[in-house]
Write a structure and sequence with these properties.
Elements: H1 11-19, H2 24-27, H3 31-37, E1 40-44, E2 49-54, H4 67-86, E3 90-101, E4 109-119, E5 123-131, E6 137-149
Antiparallel strand pairs: 1-2, 2-4, 3-6, 4-5, 5-6
Length: 157
């Protein structure tokens, strides 16, 4: 669970990070929390990031997908988009996350799709739509990231 073997990045982005000695797929693997929750990034570019997460194991006491789990998926996908927009010389730091939960999900996978609302020099804002397997919107989220210079010698780490 949580392996990132199906991540898709534009080749020029892979090359940019590889030249810095950075394993892009490992860097965008959803981190420890995302791995524990089963988040998998299946497509990634600055224009669109898609990821999935199982409902099982990420529920609240009523057996519904936990709102915090949706927030983790949303922040993961939006952050990946912001990092890809910013490039290897910057890091993206989330400064605002807003989630509206529309309906519950009890089983299967949910899929999040992050698309940019704003991509500037110092901030990036992404809208993340999370849907169940039937295509019903479970959650609408918006994430704004501050784009900061990467510490010297640790680009995008």
């Amino acid at each position: 669970m949580g392996e990132q073997q199906h991540v898709k990045f534009p080749q020029e982005v892979i090359d940019e990070y590889a030249a810095l000695g950075i394993d892009l797929v490992a860097m965008f693997s959803a981190g420890h929390l995302g791995t524990r929750m089963g988040v998998e990034i299946v497509e990634a570019s600055a224009e669109r990031v898609v990821g999935t997460m199982p409902v099982e194991g990420n529920t609240q006491p009523y057996g519904l997908l936990h709102g915090g789990a949706s927030a983790v998926l949303a922040e993961t996908l939006g952050s990946v988009g912001a990092m890809l927009h910013a490039g290897s010389s910057k890091i993206a730091v989330g400064v605002d996350l807003n989630c509206t939960h529309h309906r519950g999900a009890r089983s299967g996978l949910v899929t999040g799709v992050a698309t940019p609302l704003h991509r500037g020099r110092s901030t990036a804002t992404y809208e993340i739509a999370i849907s169940d397997e039937a295509g019903h919107r479970v959650c609408s989220a918006r994430l704004t990231c501050l784009l900061r210079d990467a510490p010297t010698g640790t680009a995008a780490a």
